[in-house]
Specification:
Number of strands: 12
CATH class: Alpha Beta
Order of helices and strands: EHEHHEEEEHEHEHEHEEHEH
CATH superfamily: Vaccinia Virus protein VP39
Helix content: 25-40%
Distance between the termini: 41 Å
Number of domains: 1
Strand order of the largest sheet: 3-2-1-7-8-12-9
Radius of gyration: 18 Å
Shape: globular
CATH topology: Rossmann fold
């Protein structure tokens, strides 16, 4: 069966080189036409061979042909579909762009093996839409900017195993990691800043139960953190995470990130 990865909110495509090692087809969906042109130039060979498809659409759960998109004037990673509130609106330029639903995109390209959702302030809406249409891929991830994201994954998605990835630290925590390459052998891979990073078994650490993931998320707080879930396996038996254990783990992780940064600087 063909493995298809959907990158909802692909930006410049920094995760695509990694996804190509994990799937037969990568469907990169991005609203910003300028970023789509970057991906089309960057992956011209893979697009020609049929392994990468770049879809230039705003993702919306309503079947609309065009929508207003808010393009950030200084930082493209902050561009968004929902209208920014209050004074924040001044930092954006309104543009009219073509739109598609995630359901129609998936119907065109095939059942997902993994879906990455990174659509500013719209992740929970997309998740709810996917689950309402009975789309629950083996692997899925979304940013945890709201508690609703976890609730959707655990309740409507019925996922049982979870991992939490710190988005701002991916370029350090997933720097020079060992993964299985396309030929089946082991190879080293590094992610750039702002990349989503690895998914599934390539993420270090054990899968957490919903209860322990909820405790970890409550301890670290909402924000630039990707919640990963799988329905291919159950998490191993584990004791409830106590505050003391969470504090010890957090201190250890910060030390590891600090040592990782020193290693990058030495290189």
């Amino acid at each position: 069966m063909k493995k298809v990865i959907y990158d909802f909110g692909a930006n410049k495509g920094d995760d695509i080189p990694y996804y190509l090692k994990r799937a037969d087809l990568v469907v990169a969906v991005e609203a910003d036409p300028d970023l789509c042109r970057i991906m089309q130039d960057r992956f011209a060979q893979q697009i020609k061979s049929g392994r990468v498809i770049v879809e230039n659409y705003v993702i919306t759960v309503e079947a609309l042909s065009e929508v207003t998109f808010y393009k950030h004037k200084r930082n493209h990673v902050l561009s968004q579909f929902p209208k920014p509130r209050g004074r924040r609106l001044r930092a954006f330029t309104e543009v009219l762009l073509p739109a598609r639903t995630p359901i129609s995109i998936i119907a065109e390209h095939g059942a997902p093996y993994y879906i990455k959702i990174d659509v500013e302030h719209y992740d929970a809406v997309i998740l709810a839409n996917l689950f309402a249409h009975d789309i629950r891929p083996p692997y899925i991830s979304a940013e945890s900017h709201s508690a609703e994201v976890f609730s959707l994954l655990a309740v409507q998605g019925d996922y049982k195993a979870f991992k939490l990835v710190e988005g701002r630290h991916v370029h350090r925590s997933a720097n020079d990691i060992i993964i299985q390459g396309e030929d089946g052998g082991l190879e080293r891979f590094s992610f750039k800043r702002h990349a989503a990073g690895p998914f599934g078994e390539d993420i270090s650490g054990q899968w957490l139960t919903a209860k322990n993931c909820r405790r970890l998320l409550a301890f670290r707080g909402l924000g630039w953190r990707d919640l990963h879930a799988t329905n291919l396996r159950d998490p191993p038996p584990q004791k409830p995470l106590s505050y003391g254990r969470l504090l010890v783990n957090e201190t250890r992780d910060r030390l590891r990130r600090g040592l990782g940064t020193l290693g990058v600087l030495r290189k």
